[in-house]
Amino acid sequence: MSHHNIEVDISFEERYRVRIGPDIREELPSFCSQHYSPEKIIVIIDEKVHRLHHTKIQAICGDYFREILWLKVPRGEGSKSLSQWQLMLDRILEEGIERGTPLLAVGGGVTGDLAGFVAASTLRGIPLIHMPTTLLAMVDSSIGGKTGLNHTTGKNLVGAFYQPDAVFADVAFLRTLEQKEWITGMAEVIKYAAIRKPELFDQLADLTKSIPEPDERWAKVISDSVRIKTDIVEEDVLEAGNRAFLNFGHTFGHALEKVAGYGNLAHGEAVFAGMIAATHFSRQLGHPVDDIRFRPFLPLYKRQIESLPADIGALIKAMRTDKKVKDNTIQLVLLKEWGSPYILPCTDLSKLEESWQYALAQFT
Ligand SMILES: O=C(O)C(=O)C[C@@H](O)[C@H](O)[C@H](O)COP(=O)(O)O
Question: What's the stated role of this polypeptide (predicted)?
Fold first, then answer.
């Protein structure tokens, strides 16, 4: 299987490399020997990934570093919390580290978002390397420097933009990825299809006909997704404008996650339902976006989602804490047509309610 190499240019001086392919993790020691002192590395790792791959990661890190500080992250969205962040920070500071001590984040979106914020906030910033192990983290959360914790008032409301020094997306990790995690990650690929590359819909629908495995076809979908995300992020690193297109489905999805209670609904499941709502809103405005495109994937999510919160008032209230809210108005990412997103300040609450009703009805 081939390797893919994608550069992310975040400014004239700063860029980092995303390496995608099988056994890419083996390249970590050589990368580290060029950038960091061999004294110590902090490894923030998902507890299940630790159980499955600890020996391998230990060998790779031990190849260059004299000491490894392991910090395990309990599974689930609940770990994106201030209390988990504090626990990590206490351990790291009590151990004693230096500003140059790198932090390796090994796991999915939750681990990466938490570890990213730990790296951003420790000693005002220590080097960060992402080693995503889930589809979602490979195609989305490890790229672009968003870090975040959830707050009782809303999703990802605590965080910082903090770019990694490198991303090692080793598709070999996907061999141990559960089916439901593939489905969760696929939501972000479906998002790229909707906002940038509609051909991906058919490729993905084809891929879902067989049990997913990290073969050449999936590696291509991953690298196409990373390229789309990279292109958008490079133009607008701090989300002052078009980066918000990457939030398609998320304004609705984050509200679902919050109202369902963090951890009760996977991020990708909520985003999938959110994309159906956003597409329906677009259709109500006359845009030609028939959601027949989502149909092949609906049974996958339907099987996974037990129930969605149905209190539309609570969902709209939750949307008001979205980070894109401006002048008290929810900003929706909608589609003019497939592949063509835009932002609309939402002043029509009846269309919003109708969009929620439509989306929720798809899952009952
Ligand atoms: O990188 C981005 O920008 C995104 O919006 C990507 C999203 O898919 C991702 O889930 C992100 O974490 C959501 O960010 P938020 O700013 O809405 O919390």
Answer: Catalyzes the conversion of 3-deoxy-D-arabino-heptulosonate 7-phosphate (DAHP) to dehydroquinate (DHQ).
Report phi then psi at 99, rounded to 5.
-60, -25
Among this protein's residues, is 124 annotated catalytic?
Answer: yes
Domain spans of the chain, in order of start: 4-177, 206-211+248-361
Fold (CATH) for 206-211+248-361: Dehydroquinate synthase-like, alpha domain (1.20.1090)
Q: Which atom of ligand 1 is nearest the CA belonging to 247?
A: 5
Ligand 1 geometric centre to CA of 243 (Å): 9
Q: State if residue 224 touches ligand 1 by the CB under 6 angstroms criterion.
A: no
How many residues appear in the chain?
364
DSSP one-letter string for 173-207: GGGG--HHHHHHHHHHHHHHHHHT-THHHHHHHHH
CATH topology of domain 4-177: Rossmann fold (3.40.50)
Q: Which atom of ligand 1 is nearest to the CA of 188?
A: 8
Known catalytic residue at 188? yes
From first to last of the 364 residues of the chain, give the pLDDT tens digit. Answer: 788 889 998 887 789 999 999 999 999 999 999 999 999 999 999 999 999 999 999 999 999 999 999 999 999 999 999 999 999 999 999 999 999 999 999 999 999 999 999 999 999 999 999 999 999 999 999 999 999 999 999 899 999 999 999 999 999 999 999 999 999 999 999 999 999 999 999 999 999 998 888 888 999 999 999 999 999 999 999 999 999 999 999 999 999 999 999 889 999 999 999 999 999 999 999 999 999 999 999 999 998 888 899 999 999 999 999 999 999 999 999 999 999 999 999 999 999 999 999 999 999 8
Please tell me which residue in 4, 243, 258, 293 is annotated as part of the active site: 243
- pTM value is 0.95
The whole-angstrom separation of Cα 265 and Cα 108 is: 15
